[in-house]
Amino acid sequence: MFRKNSRHLHIPLPSHVDELPEPLRKRLHNSWAETFSQHFFCRLDETPCEGW
Fold first, then answer.
1. Contact 51/3 with Cβ under 8 angstroms?
2. pLDDT tens for residues 24-35?
3. Is-contact 2 52, C-beta < 8 A?
């Protein structure tokens, strides 16, 4: 059954990213991963999957 997913829009309070050392957090923040997440996963249209 299809249910619209919005969990990827919310960062959990205890995140594994918070446990990284500061230099690694900055590196991750400035990498392609955050941009990809914001511009790809957050824009996926899930409505075509409603009928599945």
1. no
2. 988 988 888 878
3. yes
Tell me how far apart the alpha carbons of residues 16 and 4 are, in angstroms, rounded to a whole number.
Answer: 25
Question: What is the tens place of the pLDDT at every residue in 6-49?
Answer: 776 666 666 777 788 999 988 988 888 878 877 887 788 878 87
DSSP 46: -
Q: Please indicate, yes or no, whether the overall pTM of this predicted structure exceeds 0.70.
A: no
As a whole number of Å, the end-to-end CA separation of the chain is 6
Question: d(Cα 16, Cα 13) in Å, to the nearest integer?
Answer: 10
Calpha distance 24→30 (Å, rounded): 10
